[in-house]
Design a protein that fits this description.
Number of helices of chain B: 9
Helix content of chain A: 25-40%
Shape of chain B: flat
Distance between the termini of chain B: 22 Å
Distance between the termini of chain A: 77 Å
Number of strands of chain A: 7
Order of helices and strands of chain A: HHEEEEEHEEH
Helix content of chain B: 55-70%
Largest sheet of chain A: 5 strands, antiparallel
Structural class of chain A: alpha+beta
Order of helices and strands of chain B: HHHHHHHEEHH
Oligomer: heterodimer
Shape of chain A: elongated
Chain lengths: 209, 214
């Protein structure tokens, strides 16, 4: 069979067939992995909530995360749009957590902060999503930085200060201060804003309980 | 030398995409501060280039000249999106770290470059080998650069810490500018070496190889 390859009819039909064929293949691949991708996303978010509450860490077996989440976390109606709120009873005390997205240096940072219902002491903090500079601002996801927030007392004015300290982490959990990351002052500032906004939200939700 | 061997050697050295064609530099800057990401990027590019080149070579007699490039982009992006989908489903942590870079494989000039320069005129099997060769040629340069950058920038390799706390990481190695220096230095060394090898060949009067122009 001989085609007139450069004729307009052939070009249109050929392009159409090629497009349809490849797009169908892609849709099939997408459809087949859809459930898996969704499960990954929800796992990630659930794990971050649990680690903010201090109920899971890197050593928690992967297959237990969902069951711990289902057993201990209650999702609350959030105070403001764009904010997700969670509550959990741990050792007889009620804690609240909020998931907030705030701007970062390169892209939005999504963090989860857990605290008591009056937001007087932070329970824990987790970063769900960030696009900060790898090796600099990106270190906000590292355990030593996150660990600084654990059990940190919130200062009298209801905020946490991110200060220029040793850059190795502030071990004092009574001073309402955490060390910023050396070489990433802007990212550290963005995290401070995120944390303080989250504390405000917790106070608001805690007050209406 | 058999054609397959020659194609392999071209991709890995004599016509290396980074050293000679100077293609794929954007990704060299973007992903090489970490060996794991680099490796995934290299595998992605190698897969997309080889499969894309092979598919396009199969289709080459059917593709009208007018829409040649559109079809090339379509086929290549098809493979790139497949990689993205697979990573999102089976390696979510890596997919998250690479973020937009996976999608950006399509903007890697090596893909279009090989489709246009090789697959459009060669048989599918050879085009596949050419894609592999160029992917690996791009790969070994990237991995060498990532090796230096991750080691000096983080003190680790593949995320495994190798040096003690007294080591001060070279922050510059983590940032994009260091890739500029390293790529430039690598280009300089490679081309000097090549020039020296060619001069040596010319010095021997018996063999007179056709000088290769860029």
């Amino acid at each position: 069979m001989k085609f007139k390859k450069e004729s307009i009819g052939y070009v249109v039909i050929f392009t159409f067939i090629v497009c349809v064929a490849f797009v169908i293949l892609l849709s099939i691949a997408n459809q087949l992995t859809l459930d898996r991708v969704k499960a990954n996303k929800s796992y990630e978010s659930h794990f971050a909530v649990l680690s903010a509450f201090g109920l899971a860490d890197g050593n928690t077996p992967k297959d237990q995360v969902e069951s711990i989440y289902a057993a201990s976390i209650k999702e609350l109606a959030a105070a403001d749009p764009g904010v997700s709120a969670y509550s959990a009873d741990i050792d007889g005390t009620n804690y609240l957590a909020v998931k907030l997205t705030n701007p970062g240096l390169w892209g939005p940072i999504t963090g989860i902060l857990a605290a008591d219902i009056k937001a007087e002491r932070i329970r824990g903090f987790a970063i769900l999503d960030q696009q900060e500079t790898p090796g600099l601002g990106g270190r906000i996801s590292e355990p030593w930085f996150i660990a600084q927030f654990k059990n940190e007392k919130v200062a009298g004015d209801g905020t946490i200060a991110v200060i220029q300290g040793s850059g190795k982490g502030d071990p004092d959990s009574e001073n309402g201060q955490v060390d910023a990351i050396t070489g990433a002052s802007r990212t550290s500032d963005f995290v401070k804003t995120l944390v303080n906004k989250s504390l405000d939200q917790i106070r608001k939700i805690g007050g209406s309980l | 030398m058999s054609p397959a061997k020659k194609v392999m050697k071209d991709g890995l050295w004599s016509n290396n995409p980074i050293f000679v064609q100077v293609l794929g530099i954007c990704s060299t800057l973007a992903v090489t501060n970490n060996l794991r990401n680099t490796l995934i990027m290299v595998l992605g590019v190698t897969f997309a280039t080889s499969m894309g080149s092979m598919t396009l070579s199969f289709l080459k007699d059917l593709i009208p000249r007018k829409v040649r490039m559109i079809v090339q982009v379509l086929v290549l992006s098809f493979y790139v999106i497949i990689i993205d989908i697979l990573l999102r489903a089976y390696q979510p942590a890596i997919s998250k770290q690479l973020g937009p870079y996976v999608g950006l494989i399509i903007t890697n000039c090596i893909l279009m470059g090989r489709a246009e320069a090789f697959a459009a005129a060669n048989k599918p099997g050879l085009s596949f080998i050419d894609g592999i060769a160029n992917g690996l040629g791009y790969g070994w340069v990237l991995i060498s650069i990532a090796f230096i950058r991750e080691f000096l920038g983080f003190g680790s390799l593949f995320g495994i810490k190798l040096v003690g706390d007294q080591f001060t990481p070279w922050t510059i190695m983590v940032m994009a500018p260091s890739a500029f220096f390293l790529v430039a230095i690598a280009l300089w060394i490679a081309n000097n070496y090549k020039a020296a090898a060619e001069a040596k060949k010319k010095a021997k009067p018996a063999v007179q190889p056709a000088s290769q122009s860029k």
